[in-house]
Structure formats: C-alpha cells, structure tokens
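Exercise: predict the structure of this protein bound to iron/sulfur cluster.
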Amino acid sequence: MTYQKTVWDESPSLKSYTLSNFRDIPQIQELSEQKQFEMEVVGNVLPFKANNYVIEQLIDWNNIPEDPMFVLTFPQKGMLRTEHFEKMSNTLKNSSDRKEIAEVANEIRLQLNPHPAGQMELNVPTLKDGTKLYGMQHKYKETCLFFPSQSQTCHAYCSFCFRWPQFVGMDEMKFAMKEGEQLVQYLVEHPEITDVLFTGGDPMIMKAKIFSQYMQTLIDAKLPNLRTIRIGTKSLSYWPYKFLTDNDADLMLDVFRNVTKSGLHLAFMAHFNHLTELTTDSVKRAIQEVRATGAQIRTQSPLLAHINDDANMWAEMWTKQVQLGCIPYYMFVVRDTGAQHYFGVSLEKANKIFRNAYKKVSGLGRTVRGPSMSATPGKVVVDGVVTIKGEKLFSLRFLQGRNPDWVQKPFFAKFDESAIWLDDLKPAFEEKFFFEEELATFKKSKATEPNQ
Ligand SMILES: *Cc1c(COP(=O)(O)O)cnc(C)c1O
Ligand code: SF4
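Solution:
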C-alpha cells in the first residue's frame, strides 16, 4: 500500500505513542506480526516514544524499514545484541508478569553502560555547605549543565539517545533537581561559569509557566558572571507546535524575549539529526518565531549508522540550517552506551563523512566542529588521518577538556580502522596520552571524596 501524507491539522494536539499503544498506529498494523513483536522486545528495554507529528509528517512510510526517521524513533531489532534480544523475547513469550519483565529489562540495561564518560561520579558538583547537586553536572569550566526535574522526558525519543537511563524508570539514576535556587547558589559560588545549559530530557517539554519560573529566578539573581542561557532541545524537530499553536506557545516566546531583553544571550542548542526534520512548513515557521525573540539557534547531532551516515545529507542539512538562520555547531560521535554497536560509525569513517560534507558548504556552514567524542577527559575531535615518517596516525585535539589547558594541542594516536571511541585508541609516540596521568589522579581524588 502507498501512503499519502495526511492533510495536517494546523493546530494539532500532541498524541504520544509508546509501548502500550503503538500497535494502534495504522501504519504499524501494516507491518508483519513478527516485526511488531520485535519492536515490543526492544521497546521493553530501551525507551520508546513517538508522536502524531513524527508519524504523519516526518516518517516516509513507503520506505520502511530503511527510512531514517523511522529508525530514529521506532525500536529496531539490531539495537539489542542477539543474546539480549533473545532473553527479552523469551521472557515476553513465557510471561506476562510486568514485574518479571521489568527485572529482565533492568538486568539487560545494566549491561549497556548506562553512565558513560563517568557522568555520575565525576561531574556531580557540590555546594560549599556540602550539598551534592545531583541535578547538575559541571565538567568544563565555563559551562554547567542543569537538569530541571520537570524535563526528564521529550516529545518523542530518539532510539540512539545516551540519556536513555533517565527515561526507563531507573529512578536512582535520575539527575533530577527541584530547585532553581540551588542552581543560583552554585553560580554565585562559581564566578568562572558564564553559561548554564538547561537539558534533560528536553526542557521544552515544560509548560511555559514552569520554564518561566526558572528563567525569572536566574534573571532576578543578576549574576555578574552569567552571560548565556542555553537550552538543549529537540522540540523544533519533534514538536514545532510548541512555538506555534500550543496554548502556551505565545507565553513561551515571551519568556524567551524576557531573557534576551535582560541582556543575557539565549542559545537554542537544537538537535537535528536529518534534513527531513527541516522540511515541514511548521518547523520553518517555528524557527522564525524563536529567532524573532532574539534567541540564536545553534544545531548539533551525532553521526549515526542507519540514520545519517551520508556526507551529502550532512552538507545539505548544514546548508539548509544556514538558510533558515541557524548556526551549525557540533557533529558528535555516538557515545559508548546503549545501542552503540548498532548506531556506531568508525572514527575513520566519521572523519571522512565530516570532511566530505564540510568541503561542500560555504564558510557560514563551517562553524560546525567534529567529529567530536564527549569522552571522560573531554570533547576530543578527530582532525584527520596523517602519515608521519611512514606511520599512519589519527590527529586529535581537545575542544573541551576537564583541564582547560588540554585544549587545542594536537596529539596523535595510532591509526585503527575499527576504532569507534577514544578508549579504542593507542598513543602514537608515547606510552600514554599526555592527559592520562592527570585524569587518573582526578578520578582517584573523586573516589576518595567523602559522600554527603
Ligand atoms: C558539550 C558539553 C558542554 C558544552 O560544551 P561547549 O563546547 O561549550 O558547547 C558542557 N558540559 C558537558 C558535560 C558537555 O558534554
Ligand atoms: S530529544 Fe534529546 S534527550 Fe530526548 S531522546 Fe532525543 S537525544 Fe535524547
């Protein structure tokens, strides 16, 4: 059967689809029972949520199962390793006990490296009075991450997402925090911080009224060090109506205006994984509305097998972003968590794709940096492959470092065509990478810190 894009209601309400109701989607009913069951198996382990906009406007149902937007939002068999897939599949066939299914799911999840890059132990900041702030991370000097407790979800979930442990009900893993005041206190105690990055989940899942309270608390605090509020969000891509027709859309835009009028820079860190996400009228209008508030939109995405491992697509996507007034910012390498074995791209291939895309765009698109790994020591970019005195090497560089002094010094690793992450690489000319000793000392100091 051939699908036509539905005639779309111009002020739709969000309808979510998860494991419990995805079989109601007419397009899903057209797939074989086997395929539906596979989705159920994977969806019991990894988070899964789609919505009416993604299903009706972004996915090309004539192109299943390859369609990138389909792979981005619906669980795919390959996302679980065979042994894990079989385990969950057998559990579902033999049991309908929710508790037993949940236990098996958690057992599998714990084997998927739920907290890569030492996020839990290494980046949790502490107030001077000793309070640990589990709703924050502070890794790079100028920028701290803030996870509002109301934004631990998104308008739909990306199947590759490294934030997945927050969405699957493993409660002790949630980095949630109730109070904006603690954030302000931390900013007072750390005058080196200029940027606060609101993240989640997706902060744009918040009602404008709640988001406004956080913004007002920051504005009212008149912190001399604070220059920029960033919002990490995929809302433009998954639910542009947030800024168009939702009943608090105008209020949300007013909140943005208030932030920019107060003299702070409001930076929208927008996730766009594929050109398709930039093609609907609604996303284009939403981008205009957000920019009209004085906010700036910067864009980022990981490089993902089965979704966007195509240099031409990246070149077109960056060009389209520039045309729409957005600033290409980062291309990331997929993190070492969850379904990396499915989405991962080798560093060699990532470098090729980045270079082939970068060379096709105008200088205004070359604000993008990558391919970058957000690893334990910092953000490491693969600058290229070089041959020095007959030895083939990766040339690497820190864009951000746990120690700011590591930044912007080229260093080298032995070329390895199968390497997909920093941990896979061996130093080229020394026993250890230049940062390793200092990093080990830092980890040790964290491990012996008294728990509050
Ligand atoms: C990427 C990242 C930031 C922001 O880094 P920029 O290069 O300034 O965009 C901040 N904190 C963490 C933990 C990050 O991974
Ligand atoms: S929108 Fe962001 S946080 Fe939410 S699932 Fe996608 S990548 Fe993860």
